[in-house]
Amino acid sequence: MDKITVTSPLLPPLNELTPYLEDIWSRKWLTNSGHYHQLLEHELCKYLGVPYISLFSNGTLALITALQALELEGEVITTPYSFVATAHAIKWANLTPVFVDIDPDTFNLDPKKIEAAITDKTCAILPVHVYGNPCDDEAIQTIAKKHNLKVVYDAAHAFGVKQNNSSILNMGELSMLSFHATKAYSTIEGGAIVCHTLEMKEKLDRLKNFGFESETEMSLCGMNAKLNEVQAAFGLATLGHIDAAIDKRKKIAKYYEENLTQIKGIRVLKPESNVELNYSYFPIVIDEKEYGKSRDQLFNELKENNILARKYFYPLITDFKPYQDVIEEYPLAKNVSNTVICLPIHNDLKTNDLEKIMMVIK
Ligand SMILES: Cc1ncc(COP(=O)(O)O)c(C=O)c1O
Known about the structure:
Number of domains: 2
CATH superfamily of the largest domain: Type I PLP-dependent aspartate aminotransferase-like (Major domain)
Distance between the termini: 21 Å
Strand content: 5-15%
Bound molecules: pyridoxal-5'-phosphate
């Protein structure tokens, strides 16, 4: 029996990719800010409604570079409820992550808890728009201004997400995107940083190319984090299909919402009415007492029926070995992490797949 996977990559039709590949073969310019790399940056700025974008070979390297570009030193306040790359990036940038618990309604870093974690070493706040659900930027900016801190968003899940008709990628000093194959929009592997000035865009462009300012000059120790031409072409060909794919995901989300509200003990994450999501994820939280089964029991039953949901994010970042020096507890994040399941949501799901998923859950 075919497995129902939690996600499935959005692939452009092969015949739309081929002309790009033929052109790349004839140009013989494969990387280092090539024609399609530049074109994709231009098209993404237009599509997303952002002023500047710098493409990267993945989101993790983009996030490390974002932190490096701000020339930070000290502690960065972040959330334990994210993918490990958020905290790993802080460590790779020679900074110290300081974790703060989440808001149990949004699963995002709780701004009300930030100030208690600020010390004289704090240099930045790194919130995550978890599942693309926007953080409370107003509250975060107020704290950042008061304490003279930078704000860098991990917007890995937030491609195309809007609040009050404006891209949430414009929030903060810098925002990182991931274009990994599991994301709503992908370049197979890939990522980007959104920034507000040409000066910053040029700095990011230098940092992803070892730090070269000219053939003989370099002021910062940059890395190699460039996106190649084939992946940029994949991204361009995919861009024409992203709206339809998001629309399909939205319909699936609506189906889940309508059917799950009838089930006691299952909570669905509800964004504010002024938010347009990309529906990359469909998280549900299980109340074991009311539902009659634990998250793990439901997860296993789905698996036995060839439905591959995902415990995302579980374990918490602070429960992984590289973070074992963190002694503080994060009860709200822990509770969500122990009770959350992301249900399958992607472009290839069929009505009978959804019916089967609902049957197992019911
Ligand atoms: C919240 C979050 N941050 C960072 C990353 C890292 O992105 P990438 O896989 O493109 O390196 C991911 C994705 O995997 C993510 O989900």
